[in-house]
């Protein structure tokens, strides 16, 4: 399994500002994933981050709005840029790691963002 | 296009077994069945996954039908803390593959 931490756990931000969310995992992993969960909704993948290369973004998400860094095999950041109230969500990172029956994904506790 | 179908909600009495169904009639031969749950405002918690054999761990049992078109997650003795949204996901195991979450089943365990 993998133990994942995220910082901050929650934040309240003003519109037009940016917030950088950190994701730290306790083991080296190839891929890290960033998800968004809007209020009352299920999880939606934002992008996939591979160490040493540009992140791959899903349809509807762009690098200018959600720049991602992946400087090493245990860490990644997601920035929510030029925030608006519509960006109020839970942001989650996850990693692929070995489980008891093959590989699976483990999720961090999430970052709860409220944009005023 | 949804790869899994789950009932939107279920109730279960505390101490009884909770049986959560999932239909995945278009599952491919190399796709695994995964189950996660999300307790209010927390990150999704991995529960169990399998390919075609039934699986059991300390949290739950996973029963997959022989044709693999459906599965059931069993919580043998549900407690109030098992109240959560349960997600059934099918996925090919690969470093590049994310988890595609549907709406899930909201399980309410009642005293």
The overall strand count of chain B is 9
Globally, the shape of chain B reads globular
Largest beta sheet: strand ordering of chain B = 1-9-8-3-4
Compute the number of helices of chain B. 0
Which structural class do you get from the secondary structure elements of chain B?
mainly beta
Distance between the termini of chain A: 37 Å
The percentage of residues in β strands of chain B lies in over 45%
Helix content of chain B: under 10%
By DSSP (H or I, 4+ residues per run), the number of helices of chain A equals 0
Q: Tell me which oligomeric state these chains represent.
A: heterodimer
Overall description:
The complex is a heterodimer of chains A (116) and B (111). Chain A has 116 residues and is an all-beta fold. Helix content of chain A is 0%, strand content 56%. In chain A, the strands form 2 sheets. In chain A, strands 2, 4, 5, 6, 9, 10 and 11 form a 7-stranded mixed beta sheet that branches. In chain A, strands 1-3-8-7 form a 4-stranded antiparallel beta sheet, with no helix packed on it. Chain A starts with a strand and ends with a strand. The mean pLDDT of chain A is 93. Chain B is mostly beta strands and 111 residues long. In chain B, 0% of the residues lie in helices and 47% in strands. Chain B contains no helices and 9 strands. A 5-stranded mixed beta sheet of chain B has the order 1-9-8-3-4, with no helix packed on it. Chain B has a 4-stranded antiparallel beta sheet with strand order 2-7-6-5, with no helix packed on it. Chain B is globular, with a radius of gyration of 13 Å. The mean pLDDT of chain B is 92. The A-B interface holds A 1, 4, 30-31, 33, 35, 42-45, 48, 90, 92, 94, 96, 99-110, 112 and B 32, 34, 36, 41-46, 48-51, 55, 57, 87, 93, 95-96, 98-104.
């Amino acid at each position: 399994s993998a133990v994942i931490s995220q910082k901050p756990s929650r934040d309240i931000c003003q519109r037009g500002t940016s917030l950088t969310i950190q994701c730290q995992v306790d083991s080296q992993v190839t891929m890290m994933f960033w998800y968004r969960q809007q209020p009352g909704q299920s999880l939606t993948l934002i992008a996939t981050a591979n160490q040493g290369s540009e992140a791959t973004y899903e349809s509807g998400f762009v690098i200018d709005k959600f720049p991602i860094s992946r400087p090493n095999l245990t860490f990644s950041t997601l920035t929510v840029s030029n925030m608006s109230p519509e960006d109020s969500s839970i942001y989650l990172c996850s990693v692929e790691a070995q489980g008891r029956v093959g590989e699976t994904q483990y999720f961090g506790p999430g970052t709860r963002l409220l944009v005023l | 296009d949804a790869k899994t179908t789950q009932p939107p909600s279920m109730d279960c009495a505390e101490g009884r077994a909770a049986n959560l169904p999932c239909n995945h009639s278009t599952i491919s031969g190399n796709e695994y069945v995964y189950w996660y749950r999300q307790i209010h405002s927390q990150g999704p918690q991995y529960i169990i996954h399998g390919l075609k054999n039934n699986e059991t761990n300390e949290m739950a049992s996973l029963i997959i039908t022989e044709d693999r078109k459906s599965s059931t997650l069993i919580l043998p003795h549900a407690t109030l803390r098992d109240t959560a949204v349960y997600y059934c996901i099918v996925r090919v195991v690969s470093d590049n593959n994310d988890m595609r979450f549907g709406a899930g089943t909201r399980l309410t365990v009642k005293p």
